[in-house]
Amino acid sequence: MTDNVNKGRRTLLLSTGAVGVVGAGFAAVPFLKSWLPSERAKAAGGPVKADISKVEPGQMLNVLWRGQPVFLVNRTEKQTAVLESLNDKLKDPNSESSVQPEYIDNIYRARKNNFLVVVGICTHLGCSPKYYPDLVPQQFDTEWKGGFFCPCHSSRFDISGRVFDGSPASRNLDVPPYTYLDENTIEIGNDGGQV
Fold first, then answer.
1. Which bin fits 7, alpha (ψ -120 to 50), beta or left (φ > 0)?
2. What 3-state DSSP class applies to 86?
3. Which of 171, 137, 132 is nearest to 148 (CA)?
4. How far does Cα 114 stand from its chain's mean position?
5. What pLDDT tens digit does each residue of the chain (195 aa) get?
6. Residue 74: Cβ within 10 Å count
7. Domain covering 42-188 in this structure, CATH number
8. In whole angstroms, what separates CA 153 from the centre of its chain?
9. Domain boundaries, the chain
10. Rounded Cα distance, 88 and 85, in Å
11. Sheet of 115-119: strands edge to edge?
């Protein structure tokens, strides 16, 4: 008789345990799904398209990508002509320690020489630099050749986003992955599979 009671108890315990495991599985699915990023979070990190057709030479367009400003600058020939003359005044003229895609390796730091795409966040403490396009003396630099100046702690960057010696910023402005979808459209956050 004790064998029958023990078998009954074992069956009851096994059945209860199995139901408990199945129930825990059903409870775990919504819990684990809550760890996945929401659709809003996915969209915030997704690529962003920008129409650059109306950005005149010398002008800048500011686009938001992943909650950060991205500067799109249509540089003039006059602005890009001074880049080589600035090399001896820069911390990293060849962008060796910069955060940028592998396909960005020239003095222009761009896919097209005239069009710069950089994250508009100073690499010192995260302020947003201001664009000073004119090649004229400024209060912060009497030999200014165009570029970006961060008013928070006086970091200076040339028109390619390369940081000047003596600036508190440690590295050049970051270049996000981007590609041209056509002559008038840039997609930031997608390199188009190009290298």
1. alpha
2. helix
3. 132
4. 20
5. 556 657 777 777 777 777 777 777 677 667 666 666 555 555 566 899 999 999 999 999 999 999 999 999 999 999 999 999 999 999 999 999 999 999 998 899 999 999 999 999 999 988 999 999 999 999 999 999 999 999 999 999 999 999 999 999 999 999 999 999 999 999 999 987 765
6. 19
7. 2.102.10.10
8. 22
9. 1-36, 42-188
10. 7
11. 60-65, 68-74, 115-119
Contacts of 79 (CB under 8 A, 6+ apart): 58, 133, 135, 145, 146, 159
Tokens representing residue 113 in the block: 């020489």
In three-state secondary structure terms, 187 is strand
For residue 80, give both structure tokens. Answer: 């890009």
Question: Which residue carries 């060849």 as its tokens?
Answer: 94
What the block records as the tokens of 70 is 């991205």
End-to-end CA distance of the chain: 78
Residue 104, both tokens: 């960005």
What are the contacts of 129-134 at 24+ separation with CB within 8 A? 129/155, 129/157, 129/173, 131/60, 131/71, 131/73, 133/58, 133/59, 133/60, 133/73, 133/79, 133/159
Strand intervals (E) in the chain:
48-51, 60-65, 68-74, 115-119, 130-132, 147-150, 155-158, 178-182, 185-188
Q: Are 189 and 46 contacting, i.e. CB atoms less than 8 angstroms apart? A: yes
In the beta sheet, which residues pair with residue 61?
A: 72
